[in-house]
Amino acid sequence: MAVDPALKALAHPTRRAMLRLVWDAERSSSAIAGDLGLSRPATSQHLEVLRQPAWTTSASTAINACIASISNCLLRSERS
Question: Which of 58, 78, 79, 64 is nearest to 6 (CA)?
């Protein structure tokens, strides 16, 4: 069974922390890096993983799309 790309993107705790930061408001990648104590290159790498399923090119939009994808995945599993 293949793992949904959205769930795979959330396998790392840093990416989950990124989602918590932007849950209620958009943040720039620099703000995310500063809040999590990450280098900008590390932040970019994590955001790229969130972009991998080709949801979007924008970091904040990628995270929002990830949230939507996860919500859809959870709804599908509840219907099963």
Answer: 64
